[in-house]
UniProtKB/TrEMBL annotation:
Pfam families: Uricase (PF01014). The lineage of its organism: Eukaryota, Metazoa, Chordata, Craniata, Vertebrata. One of its GO terms (cellular component) is peroxisome. GO terms for molecular function: urate oxidase activity. SUPFAM superfamilies: Tetrahydrobiopterin biosynthesis enzymes-like. It comes from Pycnonotus jocosus. PANTHER family: URICASE. It is found in: Peroxisome. This is Uricase.
Amino acid sequence: YGKNTIKFLRLHKEGKKHFVKEVEVCAHLRLTSPQEYLDGNNSLVIPTDTIKNIVLVLAKKKGIPSLEEFAIDICNHFMTTFCQVAYVKTYVQEVPWQRLHEDGVPHIHSFICVPDGIRFCEAEQCRNGPLIVFAGIKDLKLMKTTQSGFEGFYKNEHTTLPERHDRILCGELFCKWSYGECKDFDFNCIWKKIRECILEAFAGPPDCGEYSPSYQKTVNCIQMLVLSRVSQVQVIEVVLNNTFYNVVDMKNLGVTNDKEVLVPVEAPYGSCACTLGRK
């Protein structure tokens, strides 16, 4: 049991310069006894309102240097403070605020919310067990308008999809990875590096791109690049929900449409998922 959607903004000031972290936290506990379920005995139950207040106080006292460190602080607090807690799991996701720039100059106290992917993390721990930390990015919308195709697939009497050697590749990406033993990691630096790997593997070189024969191959390329460059990542899961675009037939309008006006196919949509880990 626990408390979901604990939302708050943490404001940090260094002189005149302000820093913000707006997050949503879910904190769940498992107690050493199920007596509240079986017998209606609430003597060990930490109220969910108390859980919420603890999260807010920890944000005030410790700040949020990274989502992962904050999630670890929450796990540590419940494990060291309450002997009746057998397991704790914390999920934290961040609102993507970025500092405003005016003529290239960063503003000291103004920000803009940029929908370029939502950062999140999870931390969980059993009593006398290891601390396990996951991190990720979701709702990251990506598109490339060429260097993608889909050919040579299996066909039977139900196949109507034509082969394409040049198409738009577009999708919404979810990526989640696990760390090994968490030492003094710079979680912020690692997250940025993984995000850069995702964008590089999806797009390819800026002057020519990289051909994608399928959404599945693109998913695998993302995972392989991350594992090759980020040694702290042990297992990485990637889900790519596809958005397809159809060329509008404008012949009846007396116009030749050479893949210049397209409409998205809202539903149904395809999805590719893969989990890849080190040996």
